[in-house]
Amino acid sequence: MHESIMEQLWQTSHLQGGNLAYVEQLFETYISDPNAVPEEWRSYFDKLPSVDGYQGKDIAHSAIREQFKHISSNQRFLASNTAPAGAVPDADKKQTRVLQLINAYRFRGHQHAKLDPLNVKPRELVEDLDPAFHELYNADNDIEFQTGSLSFGSETMKLGDIIEGLQQTYCESIGAEYMHIVDTRIKRWFQQRMEPIRSNPGFDADTRIHLLERLTAAEGLEKYLGSRYPGVKRFGLEGAESLIPCLDEIIQRAGSGGTKEIVLGMAHRGRLNVLVNILGKNPKELFDEFEGKNKAGSGSGDVKYHQGFSSNVMTPGGEIHLALAFNPSHLEIVSPVVVGSVRARQTRREDKDGRQVLPVIMHGDAAFAGQGVVMETFQMSQTRGFGTGGTVHIVINNQVGFTTSKQADARSTEYCTDIAKMVQAPILHVNADDPEAVLFVTRMAMDYRNEFKGDVVIDLVCYRRRGHNEADEPAATQPMMYEKIRKLKTTRNIYVDSLTDAGVVSEDLAKQMENDYRTVLDKGEHVVKALVKEPNAKLHVDWTPYLGHEWTAKCKSSVPLKTIQKLGKKLSEVPEGFIIQRQVSKIVKDRDKMTAGALPLNWGYGEIMAYATLLDEGYPIRITGQDVGRGTFSHRHAVLHNQKDGATHIALTHLSDDQPKFELYDSLLSEEAALAFEYGYATTSPSSLVVWEAQFGDFANGAQVVIDQFLTSGEHKWGRLCGLTMLLPHGYEGQGPEHSSARIERFLQLSAEQNIQVCVPTTPSQVFHMLRRQVKRPVRKPLIAITPKSLLRHKEAISSLDDLTSGTFQTVLPEKEPSDAKKITRVILCSGKVYYELLEKKKTGERNDTAIIRIEQLYPFPGEDLDELLAGFSKLKHAVWCQEEPMNQGAWYSSQHHMRNALQRLNPKLHLEYAGRDASAAPAAGHMSVHIEQQKKLVNDAFEV
Ligand SMILES: Cc1ncc(C[n+]2csc(CCOP(=O)(O)OP(=O)(O)O)c2C)c(N)n1
Ligand SMILES: [Mg+2]
């Protein structure tokens, strides 16, 4: 019964003639995802008998293979009108085995490839690559076999030649891992790139001389720095010099293919080399840095191997802009920053397929395998909100991280690159001591990215000639490795030998190149010949409007009523036949009423109207975070879902025909990469409002590296401005230790020199003005917005249309209806939601002796504005800071001196008391009853202490 189905299938498949490899690939695909194979194949595979007692797929696979063998030989008999024989002839069995051997090379050839210049690590013997494993022996070497899908250019070949060709293709300097990719087109693509030329492109003399020049530059710079500044840390590239020709090729090939910008990310290793030899940084500037001559700028500055740089170079396709991202010490965190910056550039250029802007990220082997943010970044790569059409990853795989080189210590995976398989990225391992193989692999990687729009990894297997840095002695910890390294010729010298042997260059010419490079360095001149001295200004974003402003810079954030009415109408329009879910429908209708002045404005309205008005004024907006479309607490509903067919409608994208881009994406469940991405985006797109929202404020600490290393310190280390807004839901509502606190204390502790803004708005109009002010002022500083949960629906946390059509963001707020200032003897200062509880208490207790003041901006602390509010209180005796957070958290420790100062200015005798929770290890109590009791007490205390 199976045979007849099979025969039909053979007829329909475009590959005929016993092509077991094809069917096997289909079966592999079927095993991992039955829905990925055509229906008729799926039903055939479904019907195959199971193998009694075995569950492993290999067992099942081989059982199935037997069936195929049988059927495929029958098929050939049918084709030649010969009656099927009862037994499978020997020749057919062998043919099948040859095809299996071919497949084994494609799958596992990389495991026998000569990837390691040091050859120190024992490699596992791969049985499948041994012909004897497939019952093929020397005596078979002269027998002609069909080559199946093998792209060796001949339908039949002698077994000996097939094996030789497979060895050359898959087991020399290149180990290509691509058979984990499900898409057969891609597998074929790689086979067709490598097999016809046996992975040996045979470059012409010009290309080889160019390669040598690039290697000469790579080696020359390290030598030069080593002799001029011996023992000074530079994290040299020695042992991985092939990186330079690799990058050079990426740039030139990208330029030829129409790419206009490349954003590069890399860590310490080889960074100075890349800066000088790829980006064209003036060596003299670098020497000045080595000599400590560089003049101090306004901020803290940073060490030389963290510095970013940008330049323009010429390619056959025109000028290309290169930007190397500034980088903290924390390995791998720059990866999502680079991708975010690329995405911003692609958005600006309306580069939908990612051809115009390319991310290139370099990694160390240890960091690539160890840091979790690598996985998060890969997970982003094909998503709607974060994809860029593929990143080119290069691993500078020197087989050691600091002093850790034992694989058993460094990772559990075979390769340091295995993580890339999660997105089915091809991984091209290459021996970095074979520069031509590196060049070949680089071209293939670039072409793959262009063709398939996915991530690709080049694993440059190399070594580290010196210690982790130039002051370290590596033999202390890696004696065997370094015994080998000491005897090893440099990559360049190996290549010079091979080129002189081949008669491509003379030894004199090679020497000349070396001398020429040194001479240019001696003169302190640029070494990148393609450097464009006067770059095309159009390739740059102008940040000058945002320089040199104080946080107090003013802007008009109010909006005419007419505009609000116009936009309000647009916001409630949906396409015809669009059915909104009942509760959501009420929200939309209520928003209509708010526009009409028939209902007070709530939080969601204030926020959405801020976005609508900014778009109306020409500012692009990007909002991401987990579940931001609806909003964790259902207040936003920026995306409507048709109940009939699941279609979505985002009114903010339909305000007018010529409105700027409004992007809103629910993010993957990541904080670290997600926030880093938005940092990269915001630092590239000054005119946009870029918002990242944490699902609950607590979760932002998963991105603490981004907050510490970039957001709060980036401007001062690197002079990079960033206007990113973080929305962090916060508030003590009895939900337990994990969902109460956005850890305000952390942000306040990191606040200095006007680096960030920490705001705690308590009304819809405050959030409206705060968001608008963030882009409308010429100031670009991160905004940490502590946002509410219960206030989203609080009946007192409302505003009127007047509050939007006039006024601005208030850094401090009095009560809505303040008591007579002359009667005030007590002032309670607070921030956030507790204000409403204090107000309630004041009303019920008829405490007209007490004034409550909200500090809506905790940093930069609005001292003068607070002075103004306090000014009328001539009878003041008591001043209290009231917070919901425990004493060791919240604003108490970081901000009390600011409040004290204001009180002292009013009356030197005034003290500031504390009303809040006791110091606590956890942010909040886990039991509702405890929470309520604590909350009641702190509110009471505010009126009594
Ligand atoms: C997140 C993080 N943890 C630890 C370190 C300290 N550190 C700096 S370099 C290094 C080793 C990196 O090894 P690898 O990624 O292989 O790069 P290589 O130095 O070998 O080029 C370590 C552990 C760091 N910089 N960042
Ligand atoms: Mg390493």
Automatic annotation (TrEMBL):
One Gene Ontology biological process: tricarboxylic acid cycle
Enzyme class: oxidoreductase
EC number: 1.2.4.2
CC annotations in GO: cytosol; oxoglutarate dehydrogenase complex
Segments forming domain Transketolase-like pyrimidine-binding: 601-794
The entry's keywords: Oxidoreductase, Thiamine pyrophosphate
GO MF assignments: oxoglutarate dehydrogenase (succinyl-transferring) activity; thiamine pyrophosphate binding
SUPFAM superfamilies in the cross-refs: Thiamin diphosphate-binding fold (THDP-binding)
Endpoints of the signal sequence: none
Pfam families reported for this sequence: 2-oxogl_dehyd_N (PF16078), E1_dh (PF00676), OxoGdeHyase_C (PF16870), Transket_pyr (PF02779)
Cofactor or coenzyme needed: thiamine diphosphate
Transmembrane segments annotated in the record for this chain: none
Gene3D superfamilies: 3.40.50.12470, 3.40.50.970, Multifunctional 2-oxoglutarate metabolism enzyme, C-terminal domain, TPP helical domain
Domain of life: Bacteria
Biological role stated in the UniProt entry: E1 component of the 2-oxoglutarate dehydrogenase (OGDH) complex which catalyzes the decarboxylation of 2-oxoglutarate, the first step in the conversion of 2-oxoglutarate to succinyl-CoA and CO(2).
Family classification: Belongs to the alpha-ketoglutarate dehydrogenase family.
Name by which UniProt lists this protein: 2-oxoglutarate dehydrogenase E1 component
Source species: Marinobacter psychrophilus
